[in-house]
Specification:
Distance between the termini: 67 Å
Helix content: 25-40%
Number of domains: 2
Bound molecules: iron/sulfur cluster
Strand content: 15-25%
Order of helices and strands: HEHHHEEEHEEHHEEH
Shape: globular
Oligomer: single chain
CATH class of the largest domain: Alpha Beta
CATH architecture of the largest domain: Alpha-Beta Complex
CATH topology of the largest domain: Lambda Exonuclease, Chain A
Mean pLDDT: 83
Structural class: alpha/beta
Length: about 290
């Protein structure tokens, strides 16, 4: 019998790391989190994505090692899943083309695991995303439902359900995030039921953001900043001042002026026992100060 899907599986994957113009990745774009406090989400930030495309900075060696370790654990978890559930698909590639007002772009991504549950009719599937975390970053409490990660897996599931599978025959069931603790390989699973309306909202926000970034790139204009929890680790933070208490470009002031500005904003002194406090150091690097 002819394999109707051969062409699909043989299509080469688009390497979004190559920063191909007009092509975006789900994890690079995400959804709009402006309704949330910056401490409640991990972005992505379109300004950061813009910088990464036009002027990418190399990763620190420590980050490279960290990423490699993450990839090893990631692959191991996928292999185990395949052994346990042979009908699951690992690294399921998705690709869609979008057009708006004569602007043509494409978006893609790769889903870590699509698990098919063969007991039912219609057949059900769960979409699984694997995240590696340290004991420090492993989610606890509110972070169990990290909105950034769930938005990503929601967009993927929406694409599968609406562009790939016939919902009358194959239906989305759960969205799952599997966290692996890099220190002890412990696994921590968080899942929630797929909600079509919620996923559609996330997908629309994702599409709007793809077009928005595309316009910024074409016009060479910076997107708005989108402050988030990990701004302090952003390689572009020194160019980005809008997440500071003021919109001033702090590196253009003298230390004395900065000390005075800090005192005016926080009522605190910049110095303690002759040294600058950590809060002050954060302030001059452009970070919002948590009181
Ligand atoms: S510091 Fe934060 S707001 Fe600024 S570019 Fe980086 S992620 Fe975006």
């Amino acid at each position: 019998m002819e394999n109707l899907y051969a062409e699909y599986w043989e299509r080469p994957e688009v390497d979004w790391h190559a920063r191909i113009p007009h092509h975006y990745h789900v994890s690079q774009i995400g959804v709009d989190h402006s309704d949330k406090d910056p401490s409640e989400h991990y972005g992505p930030c379109l300004r950061q994505s813009f910088y990464k495309i036009v002027d990418e900075l190399p990763k620190a060696p420590s980050s490279r090692g960290n990423l490699r370790m993450g990839n090893i654990l990631h692959e191991q978890m996928q292999l185990e899943e395949k052994l346990k559930n042979p009908s699951s698909i690992i690294e399921f590639p998705v690709y869609i083309e979008l057009e708006r007002l004569a602007r043509k772009i494409s978006a893609s991504g790769s889903i870590d695991i699509v698990d098919f549950i063969r007991c039912c009719y219609p057949q059900l599937f769960d979409t699984v995303d694997i995240k590696t975390a340290s004991s420090y970053t492993l989610p606890k409490g509110d972070y169990d439902f990290n909105p950034t990660y769930f938005a990503q897996v929601m967009i993927y599931t929406y694409i599968l359900q609406n562009f790939y599978f016939n919902p009358a025959l194959i239906k989305a069931r759960f969205l799952e995030i599997r966290y692996i603790d890099k220190h002890n390989a412990g696994v921590y699973v968080v899942r929630k039921a797929y909600d079509h309306e919620e996923a559609e909202k996330a997908f629309k926000s994702f599409v709007d953001r793809c077009f928005k970034l595309d316009e910024h790139l074409e016009n060479n204009t910076l997107p708005e900043t989108e402050p988030m929890k990990w701004c302090k680790y952003c390689e572009y933070r020194s160019r980005c001042t809008a997440n500071a208490l003021t919109d001033e470009n702090t590196p253009s002031f003298t230390m004395e002026e900065l000390e005075e500005m800090y005192h005016t904003f926080t009522g605190k002194n910049a110095l303690w026992r002759g040294n600058y406090t950590n809060a002050f150091k954060g302030y001059i690097s452009g970070f919002k100060i948590k009181e």
